[in-house]
Amino acid sequence: MTIPGTHLEPERSIRGKKILRATPNQAETLTQIAFAAKRHWGYPERWIQIWSPLLTISPEFIATHDTYVAYMDGEPVGVCALSVEKEKASVEHLWVLPDFMGQGIGAALFRQMLSRCKYMEMRILEIESDPNAQGFYERMGAKVVGEHVGEVDGQPRILPVLEIVLIC
Predict the structure, then answer these.
(1) Which residue range forms the structural domain that includes residue 70?
(2) Chain-wide mean pLDDT for the chain?
(3) What CA–CA distances, in Å, run from 148 to 11, 85, 131, 160, 161?
(4) What's the alpha-carbon Rg for the chain, to the nearest Å?
(5) Please, what is the Cα angle at 47 between 21 and 51, to 5 degrees?
(6) How far is Cα 129 from Cα 158, in angstroms, rounded to an integer?
(7) 3 falls in which pLDDT band (50, 70, 90)?
(8) What are the helix and strand counts (H, E) for the chain?
């Protein structure tokens, strides 16, 4: 069963949790969630500032991307977003506040993205992952298919690229 007009799956079994489509007026709150989650991994603050454009979720982004918010007891605690190009979707954001990590919220958000991908008949879901999140995505069924080599502040940085094949 889905909620009409949203293609949301029914609420999952975590008490007090809901996943709803984000609205542009939530951009600041969702950006704060992204920054808090990234800081959780202990990256230097300089790197966080370099990544600021990637972590910022603007009202325009929300209006043009499938973006969802996870609520726990009425408070926003996580966010996810997809971009779509032809038959491939990409995870643009998947963030959970550190105090709520390990409680199934990230998994519920990921399942919401999978549901949306299947609804839109995407063939592939691609994830360019933070190395700290690679294990999470593998537990969710993604397979490593490559890597993106770059640098941050003069330091090499290798990001795993994972995929889930949705339609064969």
Answers:
(1) 17-124
(2) 91
(3) 35, 19, 11, 6, 7
(4) 15
(5) 35
(6) 10
(7) very low
(8) 6, 7
Instruction: Confirm if 62 and 23 have CB atoms less than 8 A apart.
Output: yes
pLDDT at 10: 41
* 29-67 confidence digits (pLDDT tens): 999 999 999 999 999 999 999 999 999 999 999 999 999
Q: Residue 110 in 3-state DSSP?
A: helix
Query: What are the φ and ψ backbone dihedral angles of 106, each rounded to 5 degrees?
Result: -60, -40
Rounded-to-integer distance, Cα 17 and Cα 150, Å: 37
pLDDT score at 1: 33
Nearest to 85 by CA among 120, 128, 129: 120
The CATH number of whichever domain residue 84 belongs to comes to 3.40.630.30
Per-residue tokens: 133? 């999140």
Indicate the pairing of strand 17-21 with strand 88-96: unpaired
| Average of per-residue pLDDT across 71-78 | 95
52 assigned to some structural domain: yes
- Residues in contact with 109: Cβ distance below 8 Å, sequence separation at least 6, in sequence order: 19, 68, 70, 78, 79, 80, 94, 96
Instruction: Tell me if 122 sits within 8 A of 82, measured CB to CB.
Output: no
Asked whether residue 139 is assigned to any structural domain, the reply reads no
